[in-house]
Structures are given as C-alpha cells and as structure tokens.
Amino acid sequence: MISRPRGTRDFLPSEMEKRRALEMIFRETAEKYGYGEIKTPVFEHLELFTIKSGEGIIQEIYNFKDKGGRDLALRPELTAPVTRMVIEECHSMPRPLRFYYFDNCFRYERPQKGRYREFWQFGAELIGSNSPLADVEVISLAYTMLLKTGIKFELNIGHVGILRDILSGIENQNHIMRLIDKKDRAGVEDYLKRIGEVDVLDRVLSLIDTSGGIEVIERAREFTGKSDDIDHLELVAKYLENLEIEFTIDLGIARGLDYYTGVVFEVYAEGLGAQNQICGGGSYRLAHLFGGKDMPATGFALGFDRIAELFSHTSEKKSIIAVISVPGYEEHALKLASRLRERFRVITDVMGRSVKNQFSHASSLGCDYAVVIGMKEIETGKLTVKNLQTGDQYEVTPEEFIKNLNGMET
Ligand code: HAM
C-alpha cells in the first residue's frame, strides 16, 4: 500500500464541507473590507524565502532542483510571494493594495497535532502604508474573521521595533528574537549573560514581562524611553479600543519570521494543545530585498487547519434523488436524471445492480426519493416514486413529481 506522505492529510466530503463553510466566512469578510483575491505559484525560487524569512523557516523549507538545475522551493508562507508579485505585476495599481489569499503552504516540520507539512493559510496583505490605521485595519479584519467563526480566541499585540531597539548594537539579534519568540527565557538569559550584556538583559526581561491592557504602554515607556514606535503602538491600541476589539498588549511578541519591523500580533485559541497559535501577522518590509522600491506593508495569516479543528459546523441536509433503472432501461434513466439535475441532486446506477439492490443502496445513502423507470413507466408515462423517508409509494407524471419537489432544489 502506498500511503500519503507524513504530515499531509486527505479530506473527505464532510470535512471539505466544513472547510468550505469556514473559507466562505473568511472570503466574505475580506471582501467586505475591500480586499481582492490573488493567486501565486505553489513553488518559487528558493532565494525568495532564504533572503529574509528567518533561520527557522530555512530549515523547514521543502526545496529541490528542477530538471534545469534551478533551486526552487514549495512556498512555506505567502508574504514573500505576494511581495514578489507586487513588484513584478502591480507597478501602476493605486496604493494601497489590498489582497487576500487562501492557499496551501509547505513546511518540513515534525508533524504533530495542529502542525502539518502541508497546511492552509488564509491571509491578507495591505501594501503601501505605514500608518497606524493600516495596522488597525488588518488587525480588525483578522479579529472580525475570527469572531464570525464563533470560536474562542485571544488577540495579543506587540511591536518588534521596541524589542529590536533595546537589542540594537548586539550581535546576532535575530537569534535572540527567536529565543524570545519561543518564550525561552532561560535561553535569553544565558545568551545575554554570556556576551556580557547584563544591562540589556534586564531591559529585555522587563519588556518580555510587559503585558496587559493599554496602560502597560506607559509603563514600558519608563524603561524603553520615549520613541515613535511606542507612540505608534499606543495609537493602534487606542483605535482598536475604540472599535471594541479585545486585546492584550504583549511586548514579548517577537514572531518567528525575520521580516517584521513594526506592530506584530498573534492570536491564540483554547483547545488545541501546544499548537495553539491560530493567526500571526504584523507590519514588515521586504520589497527592497527583492529588487523593488522599499514599501511598507502589513498583513496576517490565519492557520486555517487549526481554526477548522475548532469550528463547529452543522451540515445542511442534502436531498438526493436516486433514479432506479430496470435493467435494459438505462438510457431512459440517464435522460430522466439529466432532466432532474437541472434543479436537483440525482444519482443513477453505474454498478449494474438489480432494482432491489439499487433501492437498498439508495436507502443506505440516505436518499429522499427513489424513482423507478422501466417498461411500465415508459408505457404509462408515469414514474413510480418511493419516498424513502416515509415508505410511501405512488405513481405520478415527471411534471407532477418535479412540481411536488419544490424546496428540494440544490
Ligand atoms: P506564521 O505565524 O508563520 O506567519 O504562520 C501563520 C499561521 O499559520 C500560524 O499562526 C499557524 O496558525 C499556521 N501554521 C504555521 N505553520 C503551520 C503548520 N506547520 N501546520 C499548521 N498550521 C501552521 C506567516 O506565515 C506570515 N506570512 C504571516 C503574515 C502575513 N505576516 C504578514 N503577513
């Protein structure tokens, strides 16, 4: 038996129905904010991701050489591809650009609950503005999308500029940011003590410990000093409060990817175990690294699979009609099925089953009606119809049958 690759999944119709319902919630919300859907290739030049996505992601990349010897990679995320696309395709489009995507990503990670090698992100990018209003817009979009799913979640907001400012001048800043991202407090302490930066250590630890309501921003000012970054974060927080968006300020949010420059945010949900982060985002600068003009941008990606796990969806009952053919009358059955399919969901026999077995198959599928077509039906012009839910059986013309089915349309 050939099984699916580790860390990948198959989705059966019931799961797909739930996922599609969730996707529709996200799409509708993104459209309401004026975002348009985009699509980029599943694979890109490896370099696109190694330039700035962070050590973490490089180890996790699915990369390969194609037959022409080019180094390619399956996308581990979509922010870098979207930025590349904007540089290549969107010169003359008015700013800001508002894009959303729903696509699969690939990361060579150790699979566990909620962590896959192929997973889906629903994301949005707002490109061209570094205003606090841009941060507010994307945070509000992510928050609204999640509210509409009905799941319970917590939004945390920080600012990597404030963290990086404290670390400025220190070698291997990205390494420390990664330790902070992993909440590895002991690792941060060890590293900064080892390189003799005890003063910086005190300030970093104070910052990591700064979390709470909007008032903690003022407290943070005391040990970080006044800065545009703190003012920016405060403004974002005020706008969000005004929108009645619930959040916690957490100045220890470092994010796992290296391209963030400003406000960052993460959303966590209960009931997922260790992999409880369902959204990550923030403002970033990438375009100048890919040969474009420097441009500010902000965005986020929702971890679709993790949210789907928590999302409860009651599937609507789908009415199905089984057209049952008496052996030899398959052509008539096909014709009738085509006619009925203009409005209803219809199945026909493709297994060469007897009439009796077609009936039991229709029952086992939960079909609502079985409609028999054979010599008698052709001669009388009436169909034999059995309501499989009630057991009632009667004869009607095709027109009457269709008329009686009002409300069963797909
Ligand atoms: P990220 O935090 O790496 O950010 O990924 C976003 C979300 O994808 C995570 O919060 C998580 O829910 C989900 N996720 C990540 N890895 C896996 C996995 N192996 N299995 C299942 N779900 C996973 C980004 O990718 C950024 N591009 C987000 C962004 C957009 N920042 C600005 N714009």
What count of helical segments does DSSP give? 16
- Strand order of the main beta sheet, please? 1-5-6-12-11-10-7-9-8
Taken from the alpha-carbon principal axes, the silhouette is: elongated
Helix content bin: 25-40%
Number of strands: 17
Mean pLDDT equals 95
Task: Tell me the Rg in angstroms.
Answer: 28 Å
Small-molecule binders: histidyl-adenosine monophosphate
Oligomer: single chain
Low-confidence stretches: none
The share of residues in extended strands comes to 15-25%
Q: Major β-sheet, in short?
A: 9 strands, mixed
Q: Which structural class fits the helix and strand makeup? A: alpha+beta
Q: Give the termini distance in whole angstroms.
A: 37 Å
Q: If you had to describe this structure to a student in words, what would you say it looks like?
A:
This protein has 410 residues and is an alpha+beta fold. Helix content is 40%, strand content 22%. The protein has 16 helices and 17 strands. The strands form three sheets. The protein has a nine-stranded mixed β-sheet. A five-stranded mixed β-sheet has the order 14-13-15-16-17, sandwiched between helices. The longest helix is centred in the N-terminal third of the chain and has 20 residues, at 13-32. The mean pLDDT is 95. Residues 77, 79, 107, 109, 114-116, 119, 121, 123, 125, 256-257, 277-282, 284, 299-301, 303, 305-306 line the site of histidyl-adenosine monophosphate.
